[in-house]
Every structure is written in C-alpha cells, then in structure tokens.
Amino acid sequence: MNDLPCSNLTLPLVLIGGGGHCQSCIDVLEAAGGFEIKAVVDKPEMLGKQISGYQINHTDEDLPELLAKYQNTLLCMGQIKSSEPRRSLFEKIKALGGNLITPVSPLAYVSPTAQLGAGTIVMHHALINAGAQVGFGCIINSKALLEHGVKVEKLCHISTGAIVNGGSFIGEGCFIGSGAVIAHGITVGPGSIIGAGAVVLSDVPEGHIVRDIWR
User: What CATH number is attached to the domain comprising 118?
Assistant: First the structure.
C-alpha cells in the first residue's frame, strides 16, 4: 500500500482510528506542528474515506509493517462507555514496538509541575494545573480543567468542558462527561461513567454510572 501524501513536517506519525475523534486529533497535531502524518489506520470498510484531508488506506493488518517503518504513533480512537477497545489497541501498539507520542495543543495550558503519561493527548483550551498527574493513554478534551494535585489514572477520557477540582482522584478507565463537575478531593472509582452535566459531591464507587447529582 502507498503511504499518504504529507507536508514538510518533521516527525513521521501513524494515526490509528479514523473516526470523529481522529478529526480533533489531527487538528491538534496540525496546530502544534512538527508532525508528518504518514498513515491513517482503520477498519477495512473505512478504506478510501477521507478524514481532514487524509485518506484512510491502511488497516490493523498493516500495523506491523507501518510501525516497523515509522514507529511513532497516536491512538485516535475515542472513548465513552468503555476503555477496553483503546486498551486492546494500546497493548498491540506496545507489542509491536510503537512509540506513543503525547501531543499538547498550543492553545492548552499544562503546568510545568504537571505530568502527562505516554499516549495522552491534551486538546484545545484544556487546562492542567500545578501538580496534576495524568496517566497513560488519556484524552483530556477541549476546555477540560484539571485543578491542582488532581490525579487521573490511565485510559481515562475527561470530556469537553469537564471540571475536576483540586486533589481529586479519577480511577483507571473512567469517562467524565461534557460539563461534569467533580468537587474538591473526590475519588471516582475505576471504570466509572460520569454523565454530561453531572455534579459529583461525594466519592463514587468502582464501575458506577452517575447521571445527575451524586451526594
């Protein structure tokens, strides 16, 4: 298969997943600069489709060859109900020796004292404040706020406009929906889903779904 045409950027990159979240990822990459998108990988039925000016012309079967050639990659599959599809692909990327980049939008703010895990992406106008820690493979979406000392474990999606207040802990594989508010010092158990606009005022058990106000 032929590789995608690309512009005069610097870091050759393979994108895995060609849906709506991939559009947002490409926008961040192009705004940040320094990346050369060599391929977009998706399911066979997606072959030939266009995503933000790039053609999807590779499938998962091509990953061993692609990652041997280019190595650097970004997982562009979204995450809402479950982190398992992303987890499975991350494991495949690691097994093939892929190098997971950690792109940050130039419109975002990440404190010098914050930490970001490999494979995490920070979208436009997100704010990650002093001492916050974000684990492996997370999505910190547009206008999300992680306040001081927040810890987000791996494979979480902090969605658009969500607010996680200081000292809170978000367990592995959680989804925090658009506009949700997590109060100061709260623990959200692993695998939990906090719905759009929900307000969390006390700790949330593992694997729980919160749809409105949680006291």
Answer: 2.160.10.10
d(CA 66, CA 72): 9
Average of per-residue pLDDT across 127-148: 98
Query: Is residue 96 domain-resident?
Result: yes
For the chain, what is the mean pLDDT? 94
17 Rama class: left (phi>0) / alpha (psi -120 to 50) / beta: left
**Band of pLDDT at residue 5, cut at 50, 70 and 90:** very low
| Residue 68 to residue 77: CA distance in whole angstroms | 21
Q: What is the mean pLDDT of residues 162-191?
A: 98
Between β-strands 139-140 and 175-176, what pairing exists: parallel, antiparallel or unpaired? unpaired
Do 111 and 88 belong to one domain? no
User: 18 near 46, Cβ under 8 Å?
Assistant: yes
Helix or strand or coil: residue 22? helix
Beta strands in 17-113 (DSSP E): 35-41, 50-51, 54-55, 72-75, 99-100, 109-110
Q: Quick one: the chain helix, strand, coil %, rounded to 5?
A: 20, 30, 55
